[in-house]
Every structure is written in C-alpha cells, then in structure tokens.
Design a protein that fits this description.
The chain has helices spanning 44-50, 108-111, 251-262, 282-287, 306-309, 329-337, 393-399, 418-421, 441-448, and strands spanning 7-10, 14-15, 21-22, 25-26, 54-66, 84-97, 103-106, 116-120, 126-135, 140-145, 169-174, 182-193, 205-208, 220-222, 228-237, 246-250, 275-279, 296-301, 317-321, 324-325, 344-350, 356-362, 374-376, 386-390, 408-413, 429-433, 436-437, 454-461, 464-471. It is mostly beta strands and 472 residues long. Strands 23, 24, 25, 26, 27, 28 and 29 form a seven-stranded antiparallel sheet that branches.
C-alpha cells in the first residue's frame, strides 16, 4: 500500500487591512452585498463589495542565524558558542478590516516578531500597521491601520460561526504567493474539526475546500452574504500546495479578542469553566446507557470553579451544550473559549447516578497565578531564559492548555534567550529532564542546577511529544 506523509502548512504572512474609496473619500460602512444582475451567475458583485475590506500584508523581521564559520576554515562549534549574524526576512499574508476605525484581524504567525508591517489595499494604497493585541495560543492577532486622524474604512461584519454547516458555500480572498486579492470559492467540508488534525486541542476549525495557499493566512473565509465567517490559517498537503483541505479559525473565536482590543486590554481574558474530561467512546457511551457516542466524561472538577458551583461532579457526562451534541472535549473547550466572561452555558448532563439534568453554568475569569509556583531559569542550558510553572487552573487558562498532565509548563520565554533560540515556546509542557520525569517546579529547578554538557528533554506541545537533545 502506498504511504503518504501529510504536512500542516501555516501560511507565513501578515494580515492586512483594506479600505474602500469613493471619489477620494474613505467610506465607513459595513460591506453590503447586492444581488447579481439577472442571469449572471457568479460572485463578481460580492467581490466588488468585500474586496475593499481585505488587505495584503507584508511583514519584515530582523532574524539571527548561525554565522557560517566553516566557510572560513573553522571547524563546527556547538550551538551555545557559535556567533550569529542578522538578516532581514519578509513574509506575506492577508487580513480583514473588521471595524470602521481600521482594526484588522489576521493570524499571529503572519506578524509575530515583525519589526515592520505594511498593508496594501485593493486599490493599491499602502498603510503601515501597528500591533494592538496578539493571542499566539490561538494564532490570532489584531492590528491597527496607521491612517490620518478621522479616517474610516469599509469593513466586514462578523458572522455567527455557530450557524455554519457542512455543505454551505464559502469564499476565500487572500494574497497567495503575492497575488493580491485572489478570490476562490468552495464549500464547507466539515465544522468542529479539533484534535484530529493535531493542532490546538482546545480549538475547533472550519474545514473548507476553497483553494488557499501560502499567503492566504490571515485572510477571510466569507459567507455568501459577505460576512466574515472565519480566518484562513493552514492546509494539510502532500505537496505544499492546496489539495482542497484548508482550515479557518471560526469567527466566534475572534470576537473576544476584538472586544479586548477595542477596550484597550493588554491580553485576552478567556472565560473559565473549571473542569477536565475525556471524549466518550462508543463503549463508554453504551455502558452508561447513551444511544450514541459523543460528549465528555468529567474526570476532574476544580474546587470553587463555575463547574463546581453548578453542581457538576466527576463521573458526570456532558452530552449536549446549547442543545447541540458535543463531539468531544475539544468542542467543549472551544465553545467556552469563544464565549465571554459572564456568559451562561446550558448543558445537558447525564449524572453518575444516571439522572438526566439540564444545568446552567455561568463562566468566570480564571483565578490568578501564584508567584510561588513559578521559576525563571538562569542557569546555562537549553532552558535559560524560560519561566516554568506548575499545572494549575490559572496556568492552564492563561496558556489555553487543557486536560492537565504531569511535569511543568513553560510560561514565558525571554527574547534573544537560549530557550527561544532552541524553539521552546510558552505552553510547552516539560515532561522530563535528563530522562527523569519532572514532578514539580522545585524538582525541575534541582535537575537544571546540575551542570552538564549534554541535555535531554521531553516536551509536549499540543498533541505532539518531542524528544530534544542538546550539546553544550
């Protein structure tokens, strides 16, 4: 049987902002789509209306790379001692203008670490952008167009992505390979894609077969009504090009980020439910009397959490949320993350006593992180510059990682640090050091204090477990 290797491709680029211009003045109004001319099929009228609210993005980064000493007759040096040189790189992407003031939504991976971001509109005008708020855990960012005071822009209204269904027609506009404002059309292939695709297990995606390629990242997935349904983010491909398997972040995930940006927040405070669970298999569902698999079995409830206050207990099964069958813990987490603090979620629960109940849960902000449970690594080694923390509801909520686990979590990674140079990121779970399973922060500190010229780490990132080796 022929074997294939699949690659998740995140389209490195910048998301942009588009403005509509009429008679030299800039219009400030949501996109309105008029019906096509009689007997003229297609989406030309829609494109004319929405294209001013889409921008092509260009991001410049100053990066460091090892200096090639071997070219000058020197032997190889280890990673810690090798000198580096700077180089400028440019990436491309797309973005959606979502407010008349010129706020732009794009992917974090398009603009992360950029020193300069430029947007080009459909009518070829250029604007500089500034970062307002970024949420790398969900690959989202909000930018602001640097425009003259009082300037306003055409923008896309944000659709309720919960209304999206498999089979719906969608369109994508972006900057693939630098070909700005390219329009493609397709259908929604699936909704609620979660851990099956090996990305963020607490986030769902809209899968669509509209053609998207490198440069589409951050661009809009649009409904036939001309509203923003999602942000195109990555594809699965054997070749590096589009094979009709693209994924977009649902628009409801964007709303809390946009609200925080408009209110001047420094970070996005996603709500907290306060429980952990596992997807119910067919065997588990049958054993507790359910007619079909789905939903989650609660395995942990944090004391004082919204779930605890609502009466949920370990062993209870959450079958539906807002009258919709849950496909697993990823769907539950994604629904919570797309909500606002203070939102009330209605759950259909089969209790461990085999009673059917309808329970309402009011979501709250996560608890604060205790400073005593963190540790900044200063010793030489691959983790120098990282801040480690123990698992807790606050840490999990801050980093958007769910399901608990063992080891410690990397909370922060300092710029230009050794940990950053080795690709370690906030949210990575450090499971073992030098072959020893990490128990807590105190244990990690002890292991890292022992000098060594070689290091072996086991790191869990999302659904992947990575073994790393370093020489010093």
């Amino acid at each position: 049987m022929k074997k294939y290797s699949f690659t998740l491709l995140f389209f490195v680029g910048l998301a942009g902002v588009a403005a509509a211009q009429s008679g030299g003045g800039i219009l400030s109004e949501p996109v309105q789509v008029q019906a096509e001319k009689p007997n003229k099929p297609g989406y030309s009228a829609l494109f004319k209306k929405v294209s001013p609210a889409v921008v092509s993005l260009y991001a410049l980064r100053l990066e460091r790379e090892p200096f090639p000493l071997a070219l000058f007759g020197f032997g190889p040096l280890d990673r810690f001692d090798s000198p580096t040189r700077q180089r400028i790189s440019q990436s491309i992407g797309s973005g959606s203008i979502v407010t008349p003031e010129g706020l732009v939504v794009t992917n974090s991976h398009v603009i992360h670490g950029a020193q300069e971001i430029k947007a080009v509109t459909y009518d070829r005008r250029e604007f500089e952008l500034e970062l307002v708020l970024e949420e790398p855990e969900y690959d989202l960012a909000v930018l602001r167009i640097k425009a003259p005071k009082g300037a306003t822009f055409s923008y896309l209204e944000i659709e309720n992505s919960d209304l999206a269904e498999t089979g719906d027609v969608v369109l994508a506009i972006g900057n693939p390979f630098g070909l700005s404002h390219t329009l493609t059309q397709g259908i929604i292939s699936a909704v609620g894609r979660t851990h099956q695709i090996g990305v963020n297990p607490s986030q769902t995606y809209i899968q669509a077969d509209a053609v998207i390629n490198p440069g589409n990242s951050g661009g809009p997935l649009i409904s036939p009504e001309g509203k923003l349904l999602g942000t195109c983010t990555f594809i699965i491909s054997r070749t590096g090009g589009s094979e009709g398997i693209g994924f977009a972040i649902p628009s409801n995930m964007i709303k809390p980020l946009l609200k925080a940006a408009q209110e001047g927040g420094k970070e996005v405070m996603r709500p907290w439910l306060g429980l952990e669970g596992q997807t119910m298999t067919a065997a588990v569902a049958e054993s507790i009397g359910l007619s079909q698999p789905g939903g989650i079995m609660i395995t942990k409830v944090y004391a004082g959490s919204p779930a605890h206050k609502a009466g949920l207990q370990v062993g209870d099964a959450i079958v539906k949320m807002e009258d919709e069958l849950l496909v697993g813990e990823g769907a539950l987490s994604a629904r919570v993350m797309a909500s606002h603090i203070g939102s009330v979620l209605k759950l259909d629960v089969l209790t461990k006593n085999n009673e059917n109940k309808k329970i309402s849960v009011t979501l709250t902000a996560p608890p604060a992180i205790e400073a005593t449970a963190t540790f900044r690594v200063k010793a030489e080694g691959p983790l120098k510059g990282a801040v480690l923390a123990e698992f807790s509801p606050a840490v999990e909520a801050r980093l958007k990682i769910y399901g608990g686990g063992h080891g410690v979590v990397i909370m922060e990674v300092a710029p230009e640090s050794t940990a950053r140079s080795f690709g370690l990121k906030p949210g990575d779970v450090l499971e073992s050091i030098q072959g020893q399973r990490v128990k807590d922060v105190k244990h990690a500190k002890q292991l890292l204090s022992q000098p060594s010229r070689t290091w072996k780490l086991t790191v869990k990132r999302g659904s992947q477990t990575i073994a790393l080796s370093f020489a010093h």
